[in-house]
Amino acid sequence: MGPENPNRPNYPLRPAATPFASQQSSTPFSSSGPAVGSEAPVFRPGPPAASNFQAPPFAGGPLVGTEIPAFRPPPSIRPGEVVRPPPPPSYGPPTSGFQRFPNPPMSSAGQVPPPHISLTGQPVIAPPTRPPPGPASPFSHPQPPLVSMGSPPQSIKTGQPNPNIPPPADQRFSTPIPRPSSQPSSPPTGTSYPAGRGTYPGYANMQPNSVSQAPPMPPASFQMQQGGYGPPMQSSFPLQRGYAPQAPPTSLLAQQRGYAPVPPVSTSSGLYSGNQFQQHGIAPAHQGLAEDFSSLSLGSVPGSYDAGLDITALPRPLDGDVEPKSYADMYPMNCDSRFLRLTTSGIPNSQSLASRWHLSIGAVVCPLAETPPGEEVPIVNFATTGIIRCRRCRTYVNPYVAFTDNGRKWRCNICSLLNDDSYAVPSDYFAHVDASGRRVDLDQRPELIKGSVEFIAPAEYMVRPPMPPLYFFLIDVSISAVKSGMLEVMSQTIKSCLDSLPGSTRTQIGFITYDSTIHFYNMKSSLAQPQMMVVSDLDDIFVPLPDDLLVNLSESRSVVEAFLDSLPSMFQENMNVEAAFGPALRAAFLVMSQLGGKLLIFQNSLPSLGAGLLKLRGDDIRVYGTDKEHTLRLPEDPFYKQMAADFTKYQIAVNVYAFSDKYTDIATLGTLAKYTGGQVYYYPNFLASIHKEKLKHELTRDLTRETAWEAVMRIRCGKGVRFTSYHGNFMLRSTDLLALPAVDCDKAYAAQLSLEETLLTTQTVYFQVALLVHTAAAPVVTDLGEMYRLADTGAIISLFSRLAIEKTLSSKLEEARNSVQHRIVKALREYRNLYAVQHRLSGRMIYPESLKFLPLYGLALCKSLPLRGGYSDVQLDERSAAAYTMMALPVKSLLKLLYPNLVRVDECLVKNEEFDTKKRLPLTVESLDTRGLYIFDDGFRFVIWFGKALSPDITKNLVGEDFATDFSKVSLSQRDNPMSRKIMEILNQCRKSDPSYFQLCHLVRQGDQPREGFFLLTSLVEDQIGGANGYADWMVLLFRQVQQNA
């Protein structure tokens, strides 16, 4: 997301502020019930520029020993040249097949130089002093297979198994931490990546076919360790193993040790290939250590100061969002995770245990998530009996209620009340129970066996009868809207959607246009053409002909179509540059207030007249890094938040479509969407010739997707716990009731949970989301290790992203990034402290299998548009638009945005093979082969990268005769050849997998700067870009901070 046309001139920007205020607004509302009816966002990465990151996670401070270079360009090698790494140093003749190694002495404060101080003000742990060489076997010969023997000692068990939870199937996992080598190794074969005419920040200007040596990198001070509760499991990715520091031999530890075979050193075909290292390893000493840690250590041979890590061994979510399976297996009657995901499915039994969980206990809810065919949510109609609910807490009947007294009574699973009155089980709902307490009619009662159901609400659940779906369009017709082509694309799209609007014959529609005056349109069905009425008094807005501005679509269809056909030409000669947006907004409110509905705003310029006019605040670089920095991202005028409160009170949802090549203060305008349950679509530098398909697709989806109107949502939970804060696009009507004038499948909401009681006495906590009805159960655990085992990285990152974005509205960007980093560090440190044998693991980083991707997603979050860099990294409007979008994204879409898909397609095109979307590549420039063609997909755009050595035939087949011209002037369209048809098929396949947004194609040629850097290189989150840490250095930084006070 970002300007789609970087070649257009940039205009002066002004600060934007996102109205994600931490406090929730509360306004008197009239309650109403749900009905059914339809709704998408856009943002792009900012232009490449040097970053102003001043502190971790982007500048972790110098490594001990040597400074971290700003970048590490690998040496390039001539194609075909074979280069092998030097053999590791020998430390003595080989001895018997199994042998013990002495424990390398740990460095003390008196043995090491004073530690460097990191930019956060905390000392960085110095590496241990070089241990004296011990007897070791030189690994110049093949090694026997890995052997792990012995029984587990009882002394290292941590926590008791929870009787509530089945034995864990998955185990904790840890990954080798990268550490730079103190001596450069031989470079791999590969083609160098020559920079373009202007070198991109963070990359060396490499000359092709040159042989150079990588700059020396500082030694790392640790290894990595994986932990778990069960027997050792095979790693899901190729980990190379090294020697683990062993404790002094004891009677228990004096077991055999087996050698792991030496993995081959692979040469990368990437363009910026990093140093490759050769690793060796030995097995853990005994079964007990393996049971708790499943030891996989990375490091050098004892006595060596050499690093031992292949960076490809680091965990990466190349399979996308992987949801925890153990939780679903425990409670098969829970609602699907697409509707409700908990940050950990193990609820702590005490406040003291909860205080040790630093990743936030909470949930992410997407109540109307789309379901695959055949998995639709069942609809239940209690027409004769009324909906069965608990008389005290109002919980809906669900699979976890218990029927007693032969089916005449039932106990609520949320509040434990026994519903025993005459209304508890009406006669029409009564059924006998069998010996196990199960009703005999379960197969006829989906609400008792399904975690998600939709109840048909009777009249008593509504304050007023369901209103007809209303779509009202507020359109900027100033000169910029006309010249960009926005008016024409919008008019054609609305006209094409008229038959698909929800509501059938009840649907209402209306239009207002504005520039320096307000234009109303009478579309009464008896007219042949719409009548325009102009109001120029902006201080005292009134509505002429209030009864004829909203019309029934089926009755006035011909008049509406005539208006849409004539709208672009009607203002074709308009030279007005003003925008009376505030008065037009008030006029729309007056028209819609009787019925409610959805207001779609098409804004092309900064509001400049009447109420709500906005000033060019200016993006002052001097403000960044000061206590006033966050004010740039706050709404400038309270007028818009008050209007949003009024809209919500009268059941009006607002979606903002912003098009401009200048600053339009998205931070302020987005307030309208934030507090009405809507969303922001941002199209910077909009040109119809480029962005037509994107606007057409997203507006069509907004108008036609299934939508719940006049909704409210509440999340109920069991005794002793409660939700304390909510995060997303909504207005909080009371302490726990979310007002949503319109909600659809593309909206998700996050909430934080806290314990009300010092000690929970129940074995299970139940949750129920009341918008549709989604019910889930989670076990209460007494062991912190169980909380980690049942953690959900996707839900944690989704909640973290919302908290961090809200923090940018009251703090500096640097502080928001540091808050993410510190939470991860605290969580990993707490996990490390669980183990009584931690003194044996001082050189390893430990974390559970469930959180193996958490550090990488945390790094990606810190590099995302709302949090990235400073003044020069992202334009204010882009930052604000991205923040609004991320606040509403469901988990899977958010994770794809943070860690996009990168796939190679040239081989598939040449061989005309079936495209495999699962062959994803790490997001690093080393994944790019100069002879390849790659597709980068973050859910909002495609970047198609052409390597310099890619066959000209492929390029010509895809882009035609213009393949040698500037790619910024070339578009990708289907041509009459198999390759072109194949790549269009691949792109359409990717779009169908997530239809929420439309990915525009941006063609990029290797070395074409700044285009390549702007569209692709800044999005490769594992690389060091603009001063930000790469993945390896980020892990080093986290490990050092985990070690402090561990």
Provide a descriptive summary of the structure in words.
- With 1046 residues, this protein is an alpha/beta fold.
- Helix content is 21%, strand content 14%.
- The chain has 22 helices and 31 strands.
- The strands form seven sheets. Strands 11, 12, 13, 14, 15, 16, 17 and 18 form an eight-stranded mixed beta sheet that branches. Strands 4, 6, 10, 20, 25 and 26 form a six-stranded mixed beta sheet that branches. Strands 1-19-23-22 form a four-stranded antiparallel beta sheet, with no helix packed on it.
- Helix 5 runs antiparallel to helix 6 (557-570) and helix 14 packs antiparallel against helix 15.
- The two termini are 40 Å apart.
- The model is unreliable at 2-308 (pLDDT under 50).
Q: How many distinct beta strands?
A: 31
Query: What does the overall shape look like?
Result: globular
Strand content: 5-15%
The tally of helices reads 22
| Main sheet: strands, sense, barrel | 8 strands, mixed
Structural class: alpha/beta
**What is the percent of helical residues?**
10-25%
Low-confidence parts:
2-308
Q: CA-to-CA gap between the ends?
A: 40 Å
Average predicted local confidence, pLDDT: 76
Cα-atom Rg, whole angstroms? Answer: 31 Å
